[in-house]
Structures are given as C-alpha cells and as structure tokens.
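Researcher: Please translate sequence to structure tokens.
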Amino acid sequence: MIAFLKYIKGYVRIRIWGLSPERFMNLCSNRDILLWNIEKDEDIYTMCISLKAFYQLRPIARKTGTRVVILQRVGLPFFVPVILSRKIFCLGLILCVAFWIGSSYFVWDIECSGNYQITDDVMMTFLKEQDVKVGMLKSKLDIEALEKEIRRSFNEVTWTSAKLNGTKLIIDMKENDVPLIPAIKEDQGGKNLIAQYDGTIVSMIVRNGVPKVAIGDVITKGCVLVEGMIPIYNEDTTVREYQYVTSDADIFVRRKMTHQEVLRFDYIKKEYTGREKAGYYFRLGEKEIKFTMERPFLVYDSLIKEQSLRVLKKLDIPVFFGQITYREYQNMEYRYSKEQAKELLLQKINKFFATLEEKGVHIIEKNVRIETEVDQWVLNADLTVEEAVGELIEIPMDDSMENGQSSVEADAVE
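Model: Translation complete:
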C-alpha cells in the first residue's frame, strides 16, 4: 500500500556526491525529508526521494557542497503528461473504453441448449420473428414473455429458461422425452389395400380385411388386394351389413423392373493454374465488408479462413475478420476410356442396388449390359425382384352405397 501511494505521488531516484554526502543525509533527516533505498558505491550515494521533497534539496546541497543528479523518474505525475502529449493514443483509448461500455448494452450472441427435436435453424428463425436478434438492446428484451412464447409455439418444449450472461442471451430448454402422437381421427369408412404395380404374389399374410387375391395370382396395378368391408351374415347366409375397417396385410410380389444409367463420353475437370490472389473482409454479425477485388480471375475457387478478435471474445461480440484466397483454374475437357466408363457405371448401378436392398427389395435376378450411343455410354439393367406391395385408399362412396343397398334388399327379402 505504501509503495502504491509513493507511485501516485511520484518519486525520483537520485545520485549524490561531493564534499560531505553524509552531512547532506543528516540535514534531510533533520528537516523530515524521507530518503529510502540508500546505496553506497565508494564516495557516491544513490537513493529515492519523493517528488515534493526533491524541490527542497537545493539549499541543503548548496550548504553541504554536494551535487544531486536525477537517475530515474517514477510515478503517475511523470506518466500522465507523457500520455496526454500523445493525442491519437488518448483518443483511441477513449474510443475503446466508450466502445467497450456501449457494447455492454447490446445482445451480441445467442446460445440455445437442450433443443434436440427443434433444430438451431428453426429456433433462430423463430427468435427473428419475435424480434430477438444479435445486436438488439438489452432493454428491449422481455425474457419472461420470450419464455412463454417458446412454450406456446413448440409443443415439444416442456420447460424453458432464458437469461443474460454479459452480452450473451442463453436459452435453456427441455423437450418432452415421450413423442407426441397426434390424435388420429376415426375413419367413418374403411380402406382398401391396392397394388401399385404389376406382378405375381409369392407370399401373403392378412391381418385385417377380406383378401381378394391369393398366392400365385397375377395382379395388375390398381387392383384390390384386401377389401376393407367385412360382410356380416344373417343366419340364412345373407349379408346383413358391412363392417368398415382399415385393411392390413403383408403381401409380397415378384415382378420385373428396369433401370438405366447414362455416362457421357466427355467430362470436364478442374485444372488449377497456380495463380492466386488474396483479399480480406470484416464481419460484424450478419453485415460484411470486403476489401477485395470484384472478380480477380475469369474462373476461380475461393478459400476462406475466418477468426474472431480475441479481445472481444469476453464480450461475445460477433466481430470476425478473415482472408479470402482466390485460386484460378481452367475447365479442361477429357474423354473416358472404356475401362473407366465401365467402372463408373458399375459403381452407379451397385449404389442403386444397395438403395433397393435398404428399402427391403430382394433382387432375385439381374442382367446388366453396357452399350454405346451417339455421345454416351448407357447401362441397362433388367431385374427380377421381390418386394412388398399394397397402398391404402379410401373405399369409394359408390361401392359403399351399392353394398349398403344390397344389404337393405337382403333384409327386405328376409
């Protein structure tokens, strides 16, 4: 604490020599002038003295026949004039402090946590719709209203909390672990299971509905596989009414299908020339300023390296600067050889086969052939596959009414 007070008031380190340095120090002691850090080197003494006391040394030095020289000036009274003489530095310091203080009144970063079903992009779009964005004043942010709006707009969110940590808005939320099952409207009528394509039925398991086909039958696209109207009979085997249900069955068919892949003889490949040009940019939030040329080359790629200012990381201010490197290239035309074309086409068709397998389609037989046309290679694949068939559609009203009328007539006969 004493050292700090000495620094505030200022002091100097001096050197004294002459006829009687010892008498010089005794007179200083008699006049209550404090000397410290006294060191002796032969007949020369060095010591520290306060700035105020230094101006009282002239009569003592004259009386004792000693000489006094300043070796070092220490303290705030010497530092402030130097700083004030550098006007640009002072102005920059003032602006820096003003920017630092002014930035603390704004929201410069938004962080969301606990959102798994709701993506960050969806959340940020929602916040923008609520006028919550980077660069807004803290005073305009109503945290309680924001929490209520999040819970109201997203049914998945069961709990949410928003808080300001410095210039960062932190939104914590908890989503419902149990998936929300939408209410299923009870169908007034039934649903038939129909075929989406032609084929031959190889297996069939019906869980609900009336089967209209059997194993080994040849079906066509659009035909009814399982009917969603279950007849209820009278004792005399006449139909009394129909119960409408949603058909449910596992039906597999064997069918033929074709697939084609095309590869042109010629292709374009990038060849870099080695010429590069660099530019720089500055970004604050979503606003960007580029210090680069408009179009450095006719055809080029851009490589961007970006980093934030470490000084502003504590404030979470989204200030970034980066370098853009433009690399010139030329589009060179090449031609595939027969071996290259075959390899690429086989890669494409194998990828297609893998996609079918992922969908549960079992490939029984395949015939692949590669042919050439005017300016391209063509791969044709003839496949025999087994796959699930069946698509639910509402029972047409005409059928329902017709069947209903039949039941009424049956009752009348009875």
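Researcher: Any highlights?
Model: The first helix runs from residue 2 to 9.
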